[in-house]
Amino acid sequence: MAKIILAVLEQREGKLKRNAFEVISTARMLSNYLDLQPIAICIGNNIDGLGEAAASYGIKNVIHFKSRELENYSPSAYTGIISAYAKEIDAEYLIFSNTSLGRDLAPRTAIRLKAGCLMDCINLHNTNGEVIALRPVYAGKAIMECKINSKVKVFTIRPNVFKTEATEDKVQADIEIREIGSPNLKTKVITVKKSEGTLDVAEADIIVSGGRGLKGPENFKLIEELAEVLGGAVGASRAVVDAGWRSHGEQVGQTGKTVSPKLYIACGISGAIQHLAGMSSSRYIVAINKDKDAPIFNIADYGIAGDVFEIIPALTEEIKKIK
Ligand code: FAD
Question: What φ, ψ does residue 49 adopt, rounded to 5°?
Answer without folding.
Answer: 60, 30
